[in-house]
Specification:
With 245 residues, the protein is of the alpha+beta class. 32% of the residues lie in helices and 8% in strands. It starts with a helix and ends with a strand.
Length: 245
């Protein structure tokens, strides 16, 4: 998540920025000597615990990037083409990135016919001959839709910093890193819920533009999907099919 936030942002946010004159840095996978432009420490990631790769935000060409998000976080194929609830990670991208990212809502229909979750053997072969629609909405007026929530978030971050300072604890969080209070505090959670709801409304506008009827508002609530129970894959009670992305 912190990598996505950094990729969306346009500039370094390190308290100790890297000097403009630095030795040439290797970007070979075998070299861990990679400086993250958003922090004061090397930043790499590993897929096995032994290999080493530069993190995405290392590359200057990727700053202030476009990132495509599938906020449902799962394959969800419903007969009425409704949406699952959106996971809260999308709210962090809007609240924490600097500046506020440009937001283009997209609705995709037809993938469920090309790679239907209940398809038989050979499952790995896409079903040809089906049409896919990709509808793009208008750019969201981010300040109008999310400006008040970002201001509340920034006040919350400020309060967290002041609370730590009173305890004599320095703020050592880099961009994309959060304190426990900013992760799990009631106000932080409420903010993420509201941001997620508003972004979902923007995507539903695009869905509506394709002629689909409005869905039941309960479809956007986590509580609705809790009723699915522990089952994570396969056919659900409402006739939808769910799978891993």
């Amino acid at each position: 998540m912190n990598q996505a936030i950094r990729l969306l942002s346009s500039q370094p946010f390190s308290a100790d920025p890297i000097p403009s004159t630095t030795p040439e840095i290797s970007i070979k996978p075998s070299s861990p000597d990679i400086n993250d432009p958003f922090s004061s420490s090397p930043l790499t990631y590993s897929t096995t615990g032994t290999d080493v790769f530069p993190s995405p935000s290392y590359y200057s060409s990727r700053r202030h990037s476009w990132i495509h998000i599938f906020p449902e976080g799962r394959v969800h194929q419903h007969p009425l083409k409704t949406l699952r609830y959106f996971k809260w990670g999308v709210s962090r991208l809007i609240l924490e990135s600097e500046p506020l990212p440009e937001i283009i809502p997209i609705f995709i229909d037809g993938n469920q016919n090309v790679m239907r979750e209940n398809r038989k053997w050979p499952r790995f072969i896409p079903r040809a001959g089906n049409k896919i629609k990709i509808a793009f909405g208008d750019a969201v007026d981010g300040e109008r839709v999310f400006g008040d929530l970002r201001e509340r978030w920034q006040r919350l971050v400020k309060l967290q910093k002041e609370a730590l300072a009173k305890k004599g604890v320095a703020w050592d969080k880099e961009m994309g890193e959060l304190t426990e209070g900013l992760k799990y505090g009631s106000e932080a959670v409420a903010l993420r819920k509201e941001v997620t709801n508003r972004i979902r409304m923007e995507v539903l506008k695009v869905r509506r533009s394709l002629g689909y009827p409005d869905e039941d508002p309960k479809q956007g609530l986590v509580e609705t999907w809790i009723e699915e129970g522990p089952k994570q894959k396969g056919e659900m009670k409402d006739g939808s099919w769910v799978g891993e992305t």
